[in-house]
Amino acid sequence: MPKDPTNQKPFLRALRGEIQERPCFWLMRQAGRYLPEYRETRAKANGFVDLCLRPDLATEITLQPLRRYHMDAAILFSDILMVPYGLGQPLSFREGEGPVLEPVRDAAAIDKLAQNLAGFDAKVAPIYETVSRVQAGLPATTALIGFAGAPWTVATYMVEGGTSKDFANVRLLAYRDEAAFKRLIDLLVAATIGYLNRQVEAGAEALQLFDTWAGVLPEGEYRKWVIAPAAKIVAGVRVKHPNVPIVFFPKGSGLLYREAAAIPGVNALGLDTSVPLAFAQELQKLKTVQGNLDPIALCAGGPALVDAATRILDALGKGPFVFNLGHGVIPPTPPANVAELAELIGKWRAKAA
Ligand code: 1CP
Fold first, then answer.
1. Whose CA is nearest to atom 36 of ligand 1?
2. Distance 190 CA to ligand 1 centre (A)
3. Measured from the CB, is residue 86 less than 6 Å from ligand 1?
4. How many Å lie between the centroid of ligand 1 and the Cα of residue 325?
5. For the chain, which terminus, N or C, has the lower number of CB atoms within 10 Å?
């Protein structure tokens, strides 16, 4: 169980709309390849999938960045592709290549995966164990974020068989056989609701839904495959967990961020690097916003980092806000730059108007 039953941790309060004197922060991919201790722990596992299924190693990795920096939240160390794994789709990660899945391209393959839904929890059970162990090891004011990929983004990997540049196969399937594609999305909605509920029951205090490839869809498809599934997942989680704060990160949504902000039950919106700060201020009138420093500016460090981070703090720090990157920390980032950013956020104060 969470140590903070009254939900007083600063990050949870920020997601509920509270304005804070010192903005909260955490960084997407804060546990990862830029940290030497991550690389050392990863080497103990038999590949990346095994790493995600080893509660001892995944707990250690989740806690590693918190030993160096005072983030307000930890994010479970796992991967969005553990949902296809839990549905029985063969998954591996090749060094330097990223994820490799056996592609699912037709109704028969989708129906086969649907038959595995009943066995999902047993396959991913070690992840729930990691959540409990991390919760037990957290500093008292740090919140634990559970997460999942949103159905559209997860489906891109399932249909393409891995990382994609043009997303042609998945978009062709959605246009050519909409009924079959909808079955895949509905299956992911069902699996994801159960998966997130179990994370909350194991000790996750907030949830983030990652829709990394939301930005590749035209508006009609965006409403079908980004907005509708996210709304169903949020509503589904709310049945059992009415109060858990939920962050939605539909990367690359542009003006469609307005529609994402209108999804009932979403507490906060993750903003990517391309969102102009004036538009972020408009969205902030509707929801807490989280973002949106360029990960490359963090990697660069020096005056570019100070300038970019200060502009974001000055624009968004006076409203409901969580400082983050617009996407994940990149592997060549010097760990000292993260310390510099943490210090800058800690010292920043809203200037009187
Ligand atoms: O080689 C390694 O050590 C693996 C690199 C790595 C890491 C550190 C992968 C492979 N996944 C992760 C962890 C991870 N992935 C986390 C952990 C928590 C944290 O943020 O610290 C999270 C939340 C994710 C989520 C994830 N995985 C997303 C959504 C967020 C994002 O970055 O856009 C996506 C798209 C993935 C897929 C994935 N996992 C890994 C790779 C190489 C990829 C493909 C990325 C791509 O297609 O560009």
1. 80
2. 22
3. no
4. 14
5. C
330 vs 34, 139, 201, 297, CA distance in Å? Answer: 7, 26, 31, 10
List the pLDDT tens digit at each of the 353 positions of the chain.
555 556 699 999 999 999 999 999 999 999 999 999 999 999 999 999 999 999 999 999 999 999 999 999 999 999 999 999 999 999 999 887 899 999 999 999 999 999 999 999 999 999 999 999 999 999 999 999 999 999 999 999 999 999 999 999 999 999 999 999 999 999 999 999 999 999 999 999 999 999 999 999 999 999 999 999 999 999 999 999 999 999 999 999 999 999 999 999 999 999 999 999 999 999 999 999 999 999 999 999 999 999 999 999 999 999 999 999 999 999 999 999 999 999 999 999 887 65
Structure tokens given for 50: 């095994």
- Whether the model clears a pTM of 0.85, i.e. scores above it, the answer is yes
Q: Which residues contact 268 (CB under 8 A, 6 or more apart)?
A: 14, 15, 245, 246, 247, 248, 287, 288, 289, 290, 320, 322
Ligand 1 in reach of 213 Cβ (< 6 A) = no
